[in-house]
Amino acid sequence: MQEAIALAKKGTGRVSPNPLVGAVIVKDGEVIGRGYHEKYGQPHAERNALSSCSVSPEGADMYVTLEPCCHHGKQPPCTEAIVAAGIKRVIIGSSDPNPLVSGKGVVFLKEHGIEVEEGFMKEECDALNDIFFHYIRTGRPFVTMKYAMTMDGKIAAFTGKSKWITGEEARKHVHGERNRNTAIMVGVGTVIADDPMLTCRIEGGRNPVRIICDSRLRTPIASSLVLSTDEAPVIIATCSNDKKKAAEYIEKGCRILNVKEKDGRIDLDDLMKKLGEEKIDSILLEGGGTINWEAIKSGIVNRVQAYIAPKLLGGKDAKTPVEGKGAPSPQEAVMLGESRITKLGDDLLIESEVISDVHGNS
């Protein structure tokens, strides 16, 4: 199963909105087949593993990280292929919350005389597909709010300079996250201040869809994002009805997505609904303090990634990761949990799940 998990990870950035899945086939104590879901629309892990077998898989065991599908989608059901191959036993890591599967795959296998063991290394297998599980249950993107800061909580010096807060290893990790997420999102303030590209700069990486939250269409036409739509799609989410201005962005290859307005800003909840309908299952939020607070306040953030550098910048006016009005008391703060710490060179990455939002909702 550990090998199946490692195989599944190889599909990162290429299978969404499908899950990451790996499969290993064992016969007489020897691995005879391996496979993983390599790309959305292509064969699933189980079929890839079966087609790679060095000998007949009849009577073999299959280890698979996620319950095999039993419905027709872009690919035929994997359960049928497992039965046809004569597999004797299937060991499953995660159950599939997709209503089209959700236990039906296990039932089908058992009805055809296959022994099934469920929940094997469940925690490790579940960790592969936090994005998929959230998206399939809610229809909305899994949002990770990411920022890099000094140990005194500054994301830039009082001069506005922020390159670079963290070291090379931490920055490389960020590009891995850009590859993992379907989209990356910033506010127009970040575009104006930093003119970012928001691409993935790792070998073999995939550029995310780039989303700008720009309620009044203030994104500079000459910005790097607008001028690079041939490298990766750019969506400008706006409340503006200025069709003449919108046409300028459309001419450059950008897409305008009109969303509802709330308190003079983009309604982020409405934006998430629209993006989910377009099969955007995950977003890396790399904005500044303003949009970070709006995202937290709206309840769309699922995870926080804080890259912390062993530096002190100081400055009462220096920018912090989350600004806005803020919570009125520590008791009313956004609560985080299930924290994990990773050392990246001289820097630390602290990842935490959002347990409750500013409204106290879990």
From TrEMBL:
<comment type="function">
    <text>Converts 2,5-diamino-6-(ribosylamino)-4(3h)-pyrimidinone 5'-phosphate into 5-amino-6-(ribosylamino)-2,4(1h,3h)-pyrimidinedione 5'-phosphate.</text>
</comment>
<feature type="domain" description="CMP/dCMP-type deaminase">
    <location>
        <begin position="1"/>
        <end position="108"/>
    </location>
</feature>
<keyword id="KW-0862">Zinc</keyword>
<dbReference type="InterPro" id="IPR011549">
    <property type="entry name" value="RibD_C"/>
</dbReference>
<protein>
    <recommendedName>
        <fullName>Riboflavin biosynthesis protein RibD</fullName>
        <ecNumber>3.5.4.26</ecNumber>
        <ecNumber>1.1.1.193</ecNumber>
    </recommendedName>
</protein>
<keyword id="KW-0479">Metal-binding</keyword>
<keyword id="KW-0686">Riboflavin biosynthesis</keyword>
<comment type="similarity">
    <text>In the N-terminal section; belongs to the cytidine and deoxycytidylate deaminase family.</text>
</comment>
<keyword id="KW-0521">NADP</keyword>
<dbReference type="InterPro" id="IPR002125">
    <property type="entry name" value="CMP_dCMP_dom"/>
</dbReference>
<keyword id="KW-0511">Multifunctional enzyme</keyword>
<dbReference type="GO" id="GO:0008703">
    <property type="term" value="F:5-amino-6-(5-phosphoribosylamino)uracil reductase activity"/>
</dbReference>
<dbReference type="InterPro" id="IPR024072">
    <property type="entry name" value="DHFR-like_dom_sf"/>
</dbReference>
<keyword id="KW-0560">Oxidoreductase</keyword>
<dbReference type="InterPro" id="IPR016193">
    <property type="entry name" value="Cytidine_deaminase-like"/>
</dbReference>
<dbReference type="InterPro" id="IPR050765">
    <property type="entry name" value="Riboflavin_Biosynth_HTPR"/>
</dbReference>
<dbReference type="InterPro" id="IPR002734">
    <property type="entry name" value="RibDG_C"/>
</dbReference>
<dbReference type="Pfam" id="PF00383">
    <property type="entry name" value="dCMP_cyt_deam_1"/>
</dbReference>
<dbReference type="InterPro" id="IPR004794">
    <property type="entry name" value="Eubact_RibD"/>
</dbReference>
<dbReference type="InterPro" id="IPR016192">
    <property type="entry name" value="APOBEC/CMP_deaminase_Zn-bd"/>
</dbReference>
<comment type="similarity">
    <text>In the C-terminal section; belongs to the HTP reductase family.</text>
</comment>
<dbReference type="Pfam" id="PF01872">
    <property type="entry name" value="RibD_C"/>
</dbReference>
<comment type="pathway">
    <text>Cofactor biosynthesis; riboflavin biosynthesis; 5-amino-6-(D-ribitylamino)uracil from GTP: step 2/4.</text>
</comment>
<dbReference type="GO" id="GO:0008835">
    <property type="term" value="F:diaminohydroxyphosphoribosylaminopyrimidine deaminase activity"/>
</dbReference>
<comment type="pathway">
    <text>Cofactor biosynthesis; riboflavin biosynthesis; 5-amino-6-(D-ribitylamino)uracil from GTP: step 3/4.</text>
</comment>
<keyword id="KW-0378">Hydrolase</keyword>
